[in-house]
Amino acid sequence: MLSSEKQLANILNATFDVVSNPISLIDGGNDSMKSSQYHKHIYSIKSYNNTNNISNNNNIRISFQLHDPENKPLQNIFNPYVTCPLGKVMAGNKRRKLETGEVRSGELPPTLKHVDNVHDMNGHIRSGRVLDFTASISITDLKILMIGDSVMVQLAQAFDELIIDESNRQHRKTVWDSWPGHDGGTVTAPTRGGGVSALWRMTGLLSQSRKGKPPANSAGGGWSDKEINALTSFSYNTSSQEGSTSNKTTTTIGNFDVVVLRVMHGWIKADEITHDRLVEAISLSGELLGAKTVVLMTVPFTNNVLTEEEMVKVSAINDDIRNIATSWSSRSASSTGGVHRVQVLEYGTFYNHIIWSNARHLGYNVSNPLTATQDVFDIEGPSFLLDRLQDGQAWSPSIPMVCSDTSSLGTDRKICNRNYLFLDGMHICPESLASRYSVGLACIIGCVYNEKEGDDTTAENKEDSMRECERECNKQFMSVMPVEESWIDTDITLASFA
C-alpha cells in the first residue's frame, strides 16, 4: 500500500500497463504502455518487489488498490448509525426499537458477488468480482470536499475509512455535529499520501438564497460563513506518521481542489432542481470554497420517486447534469478563476445496475444491466420499480430494491427479508456498495489530476480525453462491471489518466 507522500510521489517509475490481460500484469508484461481491449484510461502500476518506491515524479495525485473483504473489511469505523447490521431487522428510534419480523443475512445475490464470462456493451467477455471487494485509496496534495445529506454522510464516512491506515484513525476530526453524535462537518487530514478529505452535511444545493437559513438536518439547505470558515481554516499536522518529528509542520486547508455535490432529490423537489440552481451550486463551490473541479452525482431511484411522472423528471435532471458538465469548459474558457471543470459521477446508473441485478435475482423479467442503455432503464423502470412494500408508510421502499427474496413477502406484502444492498429505500449498505462508489470517485478525480510524464496533449484533445476517461471510470465502477481477480490483494495499484 502507498503509505507515505514519498512513496506515492515515486509512482511513475513503475511498470505501466493499460489494463487488458490481467494474467500478463501479474506475470510481468513489459515496461511499455500497451493498448487495451478493456480500458484506455485506467492503468495498473506494478511495484517492483512490492516496495512501491516507484519514481521521482509527483504526477499521480490519487490512486487505489483493491482488497478481499476477508483480509480488509469495511468496518464502518466512522459510521455508528446508518449501517446494515445482520440478523433480525429492528425499526424505531434509538430509545425504542422493535423487531419487524424481517431478517438480513448478509448474502449477496450470486451475480453481485462474482461472475464469469459475462458480456459488456462492447461485446467483451469479462470475469471477476462485482461487490466482493474493498479498497485503499491514496491521495497526495489534493483537497476533496463532499457536500450532501445523510446518504452523502454514509459515503464520506466510508471514503474516509479507505483513505487512512488503521493506525491513523485519529486524523479524522469532527469539526461540528449537526446534532449530538451525527457528523455535520468533518476533516480527515493528512490522508494516506498527505491529502485532505472533508464532509459538509447539507440538505439542499449550495445557494445564496439559503444562506443564513437553518442548517442540516433542517430542510432547505441552510448554510453559513461560519461553516465555510470552520472547514477552510482547519489546521492539521502534515506528517502522516504519528509521533514523527521530521518535517513536522502545521498547515490550514485554505481552498479545496474538488467539491463533490450530491443532488438531493427528496430534500429538494424535482421541480426545484433547476438548471440555474445546479449552475449556481457549481459556481459557489468555486467562489466560496476555491474549487477548480466539481463532481456532480446524478440522481438515483429511491423511495422519494413515488410516480412514473417523477421518474421522468429525475431522468431530465440527470440529462441536465450531463449537459452542464460537457458544456462547462466553454463557460470557463474566458475566465481564469472559479470552477474550471465539471465531472459527472453516474450515481443514478450505479443504483440502476444494483437494483436491476437484484430484481433479476428475485425473478423480475428485466434486462441485464451490463447490456442495458439509459433508454432501457427508462422504459423498464416503471414496470417494476413502483412495486413497493405495502407497509403503510409514506415512502415505502421498492421490493426489488430492498428485498433479498420474495418468499418472505407473504400475501400482504408488508415485510420481506432484507438484502445487503440497501438499508431502506434510500440509504445504502456501505459494507457492500461504498467501496465501488469510493474507487469510482477516485477514478474520476484522477482523470483531471493525474498526469503521465511527457504528456503533450493539446488542450482541445485533453478535454475530449478527460471526458472519455470519465465515461470509462463510470462504466467500470458505477456499474456491476466485474473487476479483475488480478487486481485483488496484489502489488497492483490502479490510477486513471486522461
Main attributes of the structure:
498 residues, alpha/beta, 7-stranded mixed sheet, 3-stranded antiparallel sheet, 29% helix, globular, disordered N terminus
Task: Give a description of the structure.
With 498 residues, the chain is of the alpha/beta class. It is 29% helix and 20% strand.
**Average residue pLDDT:** 88
What structural class results from the helix and strand content? alpha/beta
Poorly predicted residue ranges: 1-36, 48-58
Widest sheet, order of strands: 10-11-12-9-15-16-17
Radius of gyration: 22 Å
Largest sheet: 7 strands, mixed
Task: Name the shape in a single word.
Answer: globular
Tally the helices: 11
Helix content percent band:
25-40%
Number of strands: 18
- H and E string: HEHEEEEEEEEHEEEHEEEHEHEHHHHHE
State the separation between the terminal residues, measured CA to CA: 24 Å
- Share of residues in strands: 15-25%
